[in-house]
Amino acid sequence: MSLEILLILVVGGIAGIALLLHLTGQSARRLLTPEAARADWLRHFPDDAVIDVTVARDGHAALLRTETGPGLLWSFGADTVGRHLLDFDLIDHPKGFRIIFHDFTAPQVTLHLTEEERPHWKRLISPHD
């Protein structure tokens, strides 16, 4: 089999799988509830004790207060990503906040927050500012 035909088959197969996943609803971003956010956080960090959960109004991010400090959980497709808020920069963004982690595995995330949510989340993220 020639390389050109093999390349067409591979690209077509990957595109077909992506289209099939999208059409069946598997590409939708995960919506978080307080209970789902707590369960997802404990899946990422099973040794943490979650004290409180605050979910963003759009349902795609949650701020968790744990015994070890605050943590952020956000939707990444149908799954979630969780990070402890230890070493980061908080930057104002027109849609909410951008958090830049000093971690190459999750360099940054943009939180979409309403104007009413912003001050509350800022207090929870940076209580000593």
Describe this structure as you would to a colleague.
With 129 residues, this protein is α+β, with helices and mostly antiparallel strands. It has 2 domains: 29 residues; 92 residues, no CATH class. Helices cover 32% and strands 33% of the residues. It is built from 3 helices and 7 strands. The strands form 2 sheets. The chain has a 4-stranded antiparallel β-sheet with strand order 1-2-3-4, with helices on both faces. The protein has a 3-stranded antiparallel β-sheet with strand order 5-6-7, with no helix packed on it. The longest helix has 21 residues. It starts with a helix and ends with a helix. The mean pLDDT is 90.
- Kindly state the mean pLDDT as a whole number? 90
Q: Helix content range of the residues, please? A: 25-40%
- Give the termini distance in whole angstroms: 64 Å
Report Rg.
Answer: 18 Å
Secondary-structure-based class equals alpha+beta
Beta-strand fraction estimate:
25-35%
Regions with pLDDT < 50 over 5+ consecutive residues? Answer: none
